[in-house]
Amino acid sequence: MAVCCSNKPDAMDLMLKKSTAGMNAVNKAGRTSLHVAVCKQHAGVVRVLLSYRCDVNVQVAHQHRLHFFVISLVVMGHIKFALCVCLCVSVIVVKMSM
Length: 98
Description:
By secondary structure, the protein is an all-alpha fold.
């Protein structure tokens, strides 16, 4: 979880190459690494997590899923980053369906 907070995509990639077992684990606040990376706008870490097919549908604190975080980014004025996350998720979904 600390890697997604520090915005180090290379470190995240290295960690996930070793094991993806804890990739969808939740922290004390009930958020996954993906949710933390999205909230902190760490695009590189988000891309790495999505490339390892992290679960974008994990329910987190207060029953929120990733789309609620994307909506909150738009509300806060971070439209470009929200679009980036949506595009990355769409690409991963298409690749998984092939």
